[in-house]
Design brief:
By secondary structure, this protein is of the alpha+beta class. The protein has two helices and two strands.
Length: 74
């Protein structure tokens, strides 16, 4: 089961703990309106702290602004 909860700004520094690495053996693409499967090995490496930095900056900006829901409720 996946559980979600609000994240404090201070916790965003832990984003580097998220493992986004993945791999596969098929690449999907659309060619002339048709789905085409091509057997190709691929791999996405984990993100470094430097790579996460721009995401964290964007998320911090979003956390600092009140959400549309809180503006309606307030």
């Amino acid at each position: 089961m996946v559980e979600t909860r609000p994240v404090a700004i201070a916790e965003l520094a832990r984003v580097v703990e998220i493992d986004v690495s993945e791999s596969g053996s098929v690449v999907y693409s659309v060619v002339a309106g048709r789905l085409v499967l091509r057997g190709t090995a691929w791999r996405r490496s984990p993100r470094s702290a430097d790579h996460w930095r721009s995401y964290v900056a964007e998320w911090k900006g979003g956390v600092a602004r009140p959400s549309a829901r809180s503006r309606k409720e307030g």
